[in-house]
Design brief:
The complex is a heterodimer of chains A (about 200) and B (about 240). With about 200 residues, chain A is mainly α. Chain A is about 80% helix and about 0% strand. Chain B has about 240 residues and is mostly helical. Classes of the chains: A mainly alpha (about 200), B mainly alpha (about 240).
Amino acid sequence: MMSRRTFVRYMSSSPKWKQNSPLFADKESKAVLDKMIRVDHAGELGARQIYAGQLAIFRGTSLEPVIEEMAEQEKKHLNAFNRLISERRVRPTAMMPVWRVAGYALGFGSALVGKEAAMACTVAVEEVIAEHYNDQIRQLHEKGFEKEEPLREMIKKFRDEELEHKDIGIEFDAEMAPMYKAMSQVIKAGCHAAIYISERV
Amino acid sequence: MSLIGLRTGRIINSLSSSWRGLSTKVSIEDEFLTAALKRVPELGWTQACLVQAAKDLNLSPAAHGLFPGGEVELVHRFVKRSHQETASTLRKSTKKKDKEEGLRTEDVLAEGLKARLKILLPYRDRWHEAVALQAFPQNAKESLQHDLSFVDEIWNTAGDDSVDEAWYAKRVALLTAMKSSELTWIRDDTEEQIATNEFIERTIKSLVFGWKQIHDHLESTKAMLLTIRSTASSLLRSYQNGY
């Protein structure tokens, strides 16, 4: 319809609510960004639930402060995406209730098996999330997203924190978990499936 | 005939864009929409209306190909424009109100629905035809997208910031209110559509009140679940520690 340049000029002169409104915004670039924010929001909710599930078991043990710290960071991530969802007018994924239960169950279940298994679960999940953030950082680097530099910086910061969590998991003997390889493969596959679904539904 | 018209329309499209630059093309389509809307009360949402609009603009009758989707595209484009206009007026009036006396959700929602019907008013006698066109299976998806964007806009103006299932519940509820008030409005012969306005206020009030009840109920269920969960996990911990 409109050339990109005309569009950018048009948008920069319009108020903020108009720029994000589905009634006015450029459909194509909004769809790309919406998809990103939607899946990240779901992922952070899942992460928070996993740590909540683990904490239910490890409260009062020596692991509590470690997990608590990671959980705090995930909460901050989730809040950031909560804000983005309403600010950018993104439809949240319809799977929210499912991820809420599934995340908690995964955290709780792995913690039941033991401390190493819980950490193995953390490592697997955080690895997939960090990888996924890397894909988005690359995508936002492409042409047409020059204005999204703040979002890119935010995702970068979150990715670094997820990678720290992964390192903490390895430090706390994740690799000593029973059937580490198999378990981490299964969890990773689950995360990939969740990402695929959350981007679409 | 219509195929030839379509193709000619495309040629006109591409010619006009190469002649006068892209921004002109947008305004031609806008102008065409405005011209067609003037003819809608008399000719309805039809191909004939598009042809007449082309004549009115001194374009070749084949220029109705500017809207390759035909009469449905006319409806969709009008719906989009009316939603945009409603959204803009609603933003302005709520901004003013917010400064003066603060916003109440139910007022914003009701005002949004009323403002939209006000914009549709010139086409009220023909609106049932548009509704029928929108309801065709092949058009339903786009119609629904337009309507969902619209109710999303109203909720956002009212300050909604839900990020989970509530997001869906609120939008579906408002969409239902919007569609049912539209059907009331089509057959409303009271002066200045007072009956419809009353209907809207009633519906929105029960929607917002009902939502508050559901919300309170959910909150108390959540609190109960949390208690059960923490009791269970503390029991489990003490079991693991050998009591």
